[in-house]
From TrEMBL:
This is Wadjet protein JetD C-terminal domain-containing protein. One of its GO terms (molecular function) is DNA binding. It comes from Marinobacter salsuginis. It holds the Pfam family JetD_C. Residues 258-341 form the Wadjet protein JetD C-terminal domain.
Amino acid sequence: MNTTLANEALEKLWGRGDRATLKGSDRQPSLSLSENSFPKYFTLPSASAKSDFHASLRDAERSGAIAIEWDCRAGYDGQIKRLVLSSFAQLTAYLNRTSTQEVVNRAFAELISWADDERVAHLIDRWKNGKSPRGISSDRYADVVDALKVIDDRQGEAFLDESVRRVSARLFGDSKRIEKLVPIIDLLTATEGDSIARHPEAVLAFIGLKKYPIPFLVAGVGALILKDQSGGTTTAPVPYPYVGYEPSVIRGYVGSPGYVLSVENLTTFHELANNRAGKVDGLIVYTGGFPSPSGIKAYQFVTSEVPPGTPIYHWGDTDLSGFRIAVQLAEAIKPQSKRLLLWKMGENVTGTSSLNMTSADRERILQLCRNWKWDLAERNLSGGSPAIEQELQSLVLPA
């Protein structure tokens, strides 16, 4: 019998029934076997194939799952006009499927421990409406549970920097499990209004996970206040060309730098620290790519101690990730009544950039620029500036 095409028709009808059940609709789903709705019915190769197709659907009808409406003008077994869903439960059993409603119910039961979490409640609500945010469907509820376990663990550890694979092995006995959960962790930790997926490194750094620990690197003038082993503090001058500490030991800064400049990329940091752009009269901080919560705290300890009026800049790649890093830093110093300025982002290209910027990324960056009043970068990007890596820009320090 021609069961393949018959199953395709039944699956299509089942999908309509599944959506109707999720919505609590009283309407009886049906599928018109017209040339527009189901054209394959009209291209069956022979009368025998058509008869087999009809026989398969009659079998489903005998199970109580569907009713067949025949075109009375075509005679016996001539032409099916419509398939009508008689029993969604029967059709689900006939096709050996699991309804989305049942999956959502299972998901809710598994996620009950996080029922008060707004993001979890929102995700379940989206599932109930047949949606799959960021492609995360209801049948992945077990992955969502694991992602929430990761987030809870990081909260319990105060988001202190740890190796992602060590934490993954500790939680799941699989050193690579967390990396497979990144899209879900991204969804559950995304800031409101940010619908564009973040770079995996950004997602993990946001909860204090790194491939390997990254020290808080600084170069320039002044001294750092550090927590010592006795619980007190000590002051350590910033030596040439640079120095690095575990972020959690940073407690402040002493000095009068001409500026504070955070830098996204390690190569650029090393070049600037070694006076490749001239003597450093300010303080240069390496963000470690996407800064972790402990890196942000160290940065805040430093910026809180610089004299009022000291300009604070960030220099990163001119792409969505670079601007997202800038936003993290801008948000970090906002409670200090300080404003982050951008340094060279979107300008001074010394070569031809071959990196494309999607229209969605560009629009998101422009919105971030408007939010933070980064007018020059907004003008450059509105004018069609490409994505730019720092390595394509001249080494220049603030005056």
